[in-house]
Structures
1.
Amino acid sequence: MYFDIPKTQAYLDETISLFSSALPSLTQPADVFVIPDFITLTSVASQITSSKSTLLLGAQDVHSQDFGAFTGEVSPKVLSQVGVKFVEIGHAERRRYFGETDEDVANKAAGISKNGMVPLICIGEVSRPKNIDQLSIDDVEMVVEECWRQIRPALEVMDKDAEVVLAYEPVWAIGKSEPASPEYVVKITKALRRRYNKEYVDSDKGRTDASMRILYGGSAGPGLFEKISEGVDGLFLGRFAHQPKAFIDTIKEVAGSK
């Protein structure tokens, strides 16, 4: 909730222009998306469509049901009609301020995927491991187990062919001057991938490794993706991306640039 309507329009105009210029130089395909507030979703969709940009559209939350007596909520069916591709759910702020639970996230994920969109599930451990500089296997497993409790309910209610994106950020590092180290992020995200493959790919659940992507949602800056790319597929930017040039520079790092 950092932008108003004029700022959103100006931001998209500049971002779309810079992205269009950068696109021919990218060496790998990448899904690039923006997630505005609900009021500006339709205007942002129009800006993207009219400019013929390949930017994708996201939403910051959703209700689990398509229709019903849920005053003030937003239907996943309506989001799909607007052209939304990704729907962010389970953000630490939603959990902390609005009491959102893992069950709520799972129900929303089901509604999102049923309407042909991709749930972007925010996950992260609350407590900072004591042995953070010398993580043992048990330390890593404790973190993964905490994150898995946030992930598994959603996977259980989604179709096996439905895509899911996990946005990982340790809750203990949010807003802190000392974020999680690249080494820490890689250890945890690689372990999350192994857990996913063990339970949903190398099993009778019938999922594929490609059906789940992991983004890192922590403090991001130039050069970060290169340090953590062994564990993640991309980045999920917050205020760092409020400057269009910084956003585009990050896209070039993730997708590669000629």
2.
Amino acid sequence: MSFQYLATELLLHIFRSCDTISDVLSLAATSRRFCDVFNRSNKLPILMNVAEMEFGPVDDIIQIATHNTSQPAHLFRTAPLTASLLEQVVRIGRAAQKWETIYPVKKWKLDYENRRSLSDEERFRLRRAIYRLWLYHRAFHRREYDRYSRSLRNVVVERAQLLHNWTTSDLAEMEDIRSVIGDVVQNHICPSNGTIARKFRKRYPESNHQLTFNIHLNYPMTNALTPYGFDNPNSYHGQYFHSTHSTTFNNPAKYRSRFRNDIFHEPGSEGWGDEIPHYYVVQDMMKLDPGQVIWLREHCPLKEQVEAFVLSLGDWFRDNGETFGETLEWVIKERGEDMEEFRTAITERELGIAWD
């Protein structure tokens, strides 16, 4: 029997059995009958159920999408099902999925002989850890929490309340993916002078060019934001979801290599300092949420582009390192556990996302 003649209930069951939202939309586009059944049904619940399978846990995404300053971050929130909420679920979920590809490369960076793909359960744990870390960034890495208030006891307790929502194993998963994000930040988005020199020599082994490093972070003027597509970066935390059109045509520097060596570009200028200066730069950049880090990795290969993005965030961002690490230590000590043993268990893959 042709699919065209199946009962509507069976067609809806087929829609609900799809693995991805793209599959649902593609199926709806195959024929007029499928399109009519999908559009006349209660399609938002169908799409949300499929989103749970593809991007879940959706409840953790909803905590990000519904966060605001009117209530504490550690309180669980629900939201009515709307097209706008579904759009945010898809955007955040797709950003988290990109970390599923990056994680094995970084996790088994040295032990590459044992590198493997993640299982479905590990992918779920990774996405969950990404969403929870994202919520922490959304709640506490913003303008209201400047460098002067970060160590106040009431502020530390407020941050710790959110982490107390999760078990020690959950926190290990978050710390595990945070270390991977840190690797991406310090080696790809803000590479040190030494990293730039090493990669330049590897790419051009016969070159005699001596790299000239700039020890200062020369943030561009405000009008430098225009070429990079940051029209209103502070209006919404999701500014890294700009359209492909905006990124491609407003950002010609996207296609330039940071190692290009000519009279218009010095590869050494792409370095972010040595050791101590670079450490503080990375600490600042770790306040970016996982979606922003992915966006910078994909669209800002040049230092000037990253600097323009940082400038668009405001003065509170610079010289104000991330607070998740110290809050995590606070919570682990409150639970009577040893932080060094906690981190060792993650390194040895006894805790975290991928276990041995």
3.
Amino acid sequence: MSNAHGSFIWYELLTKDAGKAKAFYDSVVGWNIDAQPAPGGMDYRMINAGDGQAGGVMQLNADMIAGGAQPVWLGYFGVDDVDATVAAVVAAGGQVHLPAFDIPDVGRLAMVTDPQGVPFYVMRGASPESSTAYQRMGFGHVAWNELLAPDDAAALAFYGRLFAIEKVGSMPMGEMGEYSFIANGDSKGEAVGAIMRVQPGTKPGWGFYFRVPDITEAQAKVEAGGGKVVWGPHQVPGGEWVINIVDPEGVTCGFVSPDKSG
């Protein structure tokens, strides 16, 4: 895969009920998640946006749940060498949750946690084509990647050293600390997200904001579908509108829409 090392290349929802997840997210985001999994082993379904695939949905089986897996959104970092990256994560104090393995015609991947316990995947895709799962302005795609970390400075150092993620500005948040904008190799200096200190009452982790046409409509669909808005709608610097939600399974994510006045 030709994405630069450290780029966000895929997003995955782990769920206990893929059918209910499809109904909820298809309504809110405008996706068409596969109604049935592809033939084979695990129950894995593609998230189809208007211009291609935006991620995947994996239904957790009994063994996964018994092993501690819970519904969550996870992100994938594209890397030049999966095994070398896993070794570097471990050397930096992270842990391996799924050792590196190959999926024919898909690529090599592993699931790890950073030194503060935040999970994510690393992957080297088999296809030479670049992933477009992340698109800053693409409707139906992740438009912003946000990490809440117990120690935001340590997180910036870790992801900078291992994934060439760089700080490209910041916004003071008072007692909440600093909201540090981050860029990666694919973004050519443009922010693709941010890192900030986790706040009381919230959990550490990567969170993802999906772009929708209208935040008010998204809020109504979240609530009609059994989800809950926990923050917003709020206008952020630059004019965009955002909400943070929990879906019907309690999974957190966000939605972002253009400036309503535009």
